[in-house]
Amino acid sequence: MSEVLDPAEPGACNGSAHADGTVAVGGNGTVLAERRGHVLIVTLHRPEARNAVNTDLTVGVGEALDLAEADPSIWVVVITGAGDKAFCAGADLKEAARGRQGPVDPRMERWGFAGYVKHMISKPTIAAVNGFALGGGTEIVLASDLAVAADTATFGLPEVKRGIFAGAGGAFRLARQIPPKIAMEHLLAGDPLPAARAFELGLVNAVVPLPELLDTALALAERICVNAPLSVQASKRLARGIVDGVAVDEADDWDRTAEEGRTLMRSADAMEGMTAFAEKRAPRWQGR
């Protein structure tokens, strides 16, 4: 049974209720949250931008995960995208190029990209990938504990085609979740990875027709919810190396990612990549 999150409740993120039983969290309705029993469904809600990540969406997801972590009645989180075309198209490069990302929320550094990729809550997370999931979309999947995908979904880390790199965890997580040589091929060539191949490689737990996607994710969540929630949460913390909400085993990886990112983002090629993308033309690389 669906339950509306009461915006007046502590931790309800000051959301606004929708008639369908969801609550908007974050700015401009970019994230929706809905309870179903012990499961919180978090929906990236920018279908007009293929659910690309901007500041409002980042804050909305981050607040929704904080809500889930603080609420003892929420045992599993499912994250998905609005519409039937895209799960998440990664960062909103067009908005970034126009300088419209908005003010920086101080919590965003702790949460990471999309309010999610460094946001290590104790509750299990399941990505329900409803379509296009290149770049940051794949990095959200890599940050999730489990994933199910529609047969129309596409994965990949094409950042190198834009003059940047997979700086939201993809550069070090991909090779830990699929065979290293295959991971390097996709990381360096930036080629897409169809859903069926992602399943073969173990990136996702199941591939189903799109109309069955959310039910499949919820069924997986219910298999977890029949177990003792504190036992499940302790198991996740140990498996993921989580201490005080941080994956401590990844601390050095994030430090190195930040260092590489600072250097790369000062390069002419990084600026050219974003500009070329916004102008819908091929980039002209200079190697500097």
UniProtKB/TrEMBL annotation:
<keyword id="KW-0456">Lyase</keyword>
<dbReference type="InterPro" id="IPR029045">
    <property type="entry name" value="ClpP/crotonase-like_dom_sf"/>
</dbReference>
<dbReference type="InterPro" id="IPR018376">
    <property type="entry name" value="Enoyl-CoA_hyd/isom_CS"/>
</dbReference>
<comment type="similarity">
    <text>Belongs to the enoyl-CoA hydratase/isomerase family.</text>
</comment>
<dbReference type="GO" id="GO:0004300">
    <property type="term" value="F:enoyl-CoA hydratase activity"/>
</dbReference>
<keyword id="KW-0443">Lipid metabolism</keyword>
<dbReference type="Pfam" id="PF00378">
    <property type="entry name" value="ECH_1"/>
</dbReference>
<dbReference type="GO" id="GO:0006635">
    <property type="term" value="P:fatty acid beta-oxidation"/>
</dbReference>
<dbReference type="InterPro" id="IPR014748">
    <property type="entry name" value="Enoyl-CoA_hydra_C"/>
</dbReference>
<dbReference type="InterPro" id="IPR001753">
    <property type="entry name" value="Enoyl-CoA_hydra/iso"/>
</dbReference>
<protein>
    <recommendedName>
        <fullName>enoyl-CoA hydratase</fullName>
        <ecNumber>4.2.1.17</ecNumber>
    </recommendedName>
</protein>
